[in-house]
Design a protein that fits this description.
With 486 residues, this protein is of the alpha/beta class. Among the domains are: 164 residues, 3-Layer(aba) Sandwich (Rossmann fold), CATH 3.40.50; 110 residues, Alpha-Beta Complex (Outer Surface Protein A, domain 3). Helix content is 29%, strand content 21%. The chain contains 10 helices and 17 strands. The longest helix is centred in the N-terminal third of the chain and has 43 residues.
C-alpha cells in the first residue's frame, strides 16, 4: 500500500482529492469579484586521526503541518456565519432608492467577505497538502517511481489551483513533521566548549521542536571519550531537551551503551619495575636499569586515562587510551622512525575484543570492522563510508527517521545519500553566507533538496527568493535577546 493509499485509508471520512467533484469549493462569480479584494496575488517572500521572530510562511491555524487535518477534512474550522439582512428589508416596490442601494451594497460586502474567508481557508489547505507531498518525496527512494509520480502529480494539481486563485504558486510551505517519526540532530562531534553559533543552533532547533510537541535526539560520529559528560553539560545548559539522548557511533560500536558490568584495567607490572611519582596524576614506571617503560596518567577520579609505552627509555611505541569506566578503549601505534606519526589505531569493545582498526599506511585498508568473534565484517576506504554503513545498518535500521544536519557538517553531502534508503535528511542553514558551494548547490537544485531549516527570517527570505526549485522552509524560533539596564 503506497503512502497515499495508506493516508486515504486513514482519512476516508475527511479527505477528497482536489479533482474530485465532491470537494469543490463554491466559486464566487468572477464578474462580481472586486479585484481589489484579491489580496493573495503576490507571494509572501518572508515567508586527521581520531584523537587530536515571527514565521512569515506558517500556514494558518486552520491546518497546521503535523496536525491530523493536513488533508481537507471535516475537522477544519468552520467559516463564520455572515450576518444576514432582515427579510423585512427585501427591496419592495416603492422602497426608497437610498435604502435599496444600501441593501445591495451590504449584500455585496457579505459576498466579498465570504469569498476572502474561503480563499484563506483554501490557501492554507493547499499549502498544507503540498507540504505533505514534499514530505513523501523526501522519504521515498529514487527507485519508488510510482509513489514519486503520485506526489509530483498532486503537487502539480495544487500549484495549478494556487495559480488560479492567487495568481502564483510561489509560496513556501512549512516543513511537515510527522509525530510518528524519530528526529535526530546530526553533529560531527560534541564540543566541550561550543561557540555561540553552535549553541544558538542547538537552542533554536530544540525550541522549534518543543513548540510542535516533539523532541530531537542527537547523533555524533567522532571518537570522544568525554562525550557523555559533554552531553550532560548541554542538557544542563538548556541547549537540548532534558529527555533527549545522544547516540555516538564509537560508543555504540564499542558497546558502551549496553550498561553491562565492566572491570577497570590494571597496569602491567613486572617484579623488577619500580614507580616514580611525578605528580598526583602522573607516574613513571622504570625497569631494573632505570629506563622508562611506561608513563601512566590518571583522571581526577584516579582512574587510568592514558598509558604510554616506551622502548629503550626514549622511543614511544604506543599509547593506550581508557574510557570513563577505566576500561581500555583504544591503542595508538607510532612509526618507529617518527614518533609523531600514528600508523595504526585499534578500538576495543568493553569486553576487550577488537572492533575496529584504522590504518594510516598504504599496505592495509584504511578501516577494518570486526565481529566479537574477530571475524572481518567489512572494510571502508574513508570515515564517510563507515558512518554511512553504521547509520543505515545499525543505528537507524529499525526507525522511520528524520535527520537534521548543518550544511557546515563535513559529512553533509554523504548523508544526503541516506534518502535513497527511506531516511529523511533536512539541512540547516543558519547563515546564507556560510559554505557558499553547498548553499549554491541547494538553491540551484543540484542536491534535490525539498526542505530546509532556516536560522532566521532573512535566511528564509533569501532561500525562498533564490531557490530554483520549490522548498518547504521552517524558520527556527528566535532566541530571546536579554535586555540590559544601565
Amino acid at each position: 500500500m503506497s503512502f497515499f493509499d495508506r493516508k486515504k485509508k486513514e482519512n476516508d471520512d475527511n479527505y477528497s482529492d482536489l479533482n474530485n467533484s465532491s470537494y469543490q469549493n463554491p466559486q464566487p462569480d468572477q464578474n462580481n469579484f472586486d479585484q481589489a479584494q484579491n489580496q493573495y496575488n503576490d507571494a509572501q517572500m518572508n515567508n586527521g586521526t581520531q584523537f587530536g521572530g515571527n514565521d512569515f510562511n506558517q500556514p494558518s491555524q486552520a491546518a497546521q503541518p503535523g496536525s491530523n487535518d493536513y488533508f481537507f477534512g471535516q475537522n477544519q474550522p468552520q467559516m463564520q456565519q455572515q450576518p444576514q439582512m432582515d427579510s423585512n428589508r427585501n427591496p419592495q416596490p416603492g422602497m426608497d432608492s437610498g435604502e435599496e442601494w444600501q441593501y445591495t451594497e451590504q449584500n455585496l460586502q457579505n459576498t466579498l467577505d465570504q469569498s476572502a474567508d474561503l480563499k484563506s481557508q483554501l490557501r492554507s489547505q493547499l499549502l498544507t497538502d503540498r507540504s505533505y507531498c514534499n514530505h513523501i518525496l523526501r522519504n521515498v527512494g529514487s527507485d519508488q517511481v510510482d509513489e514519486r509520480k503520485q506526489a509530483t502529480d498532486r503537487i502539480d494539481q495544487i500549484n495549478a489551483s494556487l495559480k488560479e486563485w492567487f495568481g502564483t504558486d510561489e509560496m513556501a510551505n512549512e516543513i511537515y513533521l510527522d509525530a510518528n517519526s524519530d528526529y535526530y540532530i546530526f553533529t560531527d562531534d560534541l564540543a566541550a566548549n561550543p561557540d555561540s553559533d553552535t549553541t544558538n543552533m542547538w537552542q533554536q532547533l530544540t525550541m522549534t521542536m518543543a513548540d510542535k510537541g516533539l523532541i530531537a535526539n542527537a547523533i555524533s560520529v567522532t571518537y570522544n571519550d568525554q562525550i557523555d559528560e559533554a552531553w550532560m553539560n548541554y542538557q544542563n545548559a538548556g541547549f537540548v531537551d532534558g529527555n533527549a539522548y545522544l547516540l555516538n557511533m564509537y560508543n555504540d560500536l564499542q558497546g558502551r551503551n549496553m550498561n553491562t558490568p565492566v572491570t577497570p584495567a590494571e597496569i602491567p607490572f613486572d617484579a623488577d619495575y619500580r614507580v616514580q611519582h611525578v605528580s598526583d596524576k602522573v607516574d613513571k614506571i622504570l625497569d631494573a636499569d632505570d629506563k622508562l617503560v611506561m608513563e601512566v596518567s590518571r583522571n581526577a577520579n584516579h582512574q587510568l586515562q592514558i598509558i604510554r609505552h616506551y622502548k629503550n627509555g626514549t622511543q614511544l611505541l604506543s599509547r593506550d587510551i581508557f574510557d570513563v569506566n577505566g576500561v581500555i578503549s583504544a591503542t595508538q601505534f607510532y612509526d618507529h622512525r617518527n614518533t609523531n606519526k600514528v600508523v595504526r589505531e585499534n578500538f576495543y569493545r568493553q569486553n576487550g575484543t577488537l572492533v575496529l582498526i584504522k590504518s594510516y599506511t598504504a599496505e592495509e585498508p584504511y578501516i577494518q570492522l570486526f565481529s566479537e568473534g574477530n571475524v572481518l565484517i567489512s572494510t571502508f576506504d574513508n570515515d564517510e563510508d563507515l558512518i554511512f554503513w553504521w547509520l543505515k545498518n545499525q543505528a537507524l535500521k529499525q526507525n522511520a527517521s528524520t535527520i537534521f544536519v548543518s550544511i557546515n557538517s563535513e559529512y553533509y553531502k554523504k548523508l544526503l545519500e541516506l534518502r535513497d534508503y527511506g531516511f529523511e535528511v533536512i539541512p540547516i542553514v543558519m547563515k546564507q553566507s556560510e559554505n557558499a558551494q553547498e548553499v549554491s548547490d541547494l538553491i540551484e537544485g543540484r542536491d534535490k533538496i525539498n526542505a530546509v531549516l532556516a536560522g532566521s527570517d532573512q535566511v528564509n527570505t533569501y532561500l525562498n527568493k533564490n531557490s530554483k526549485n520549490k522548498l518547504d522552509i521552517t524558520t527556527l524560533k528566535e532566541l530571546d535577546t536579554p535586555i540590559y539596564k544601565e
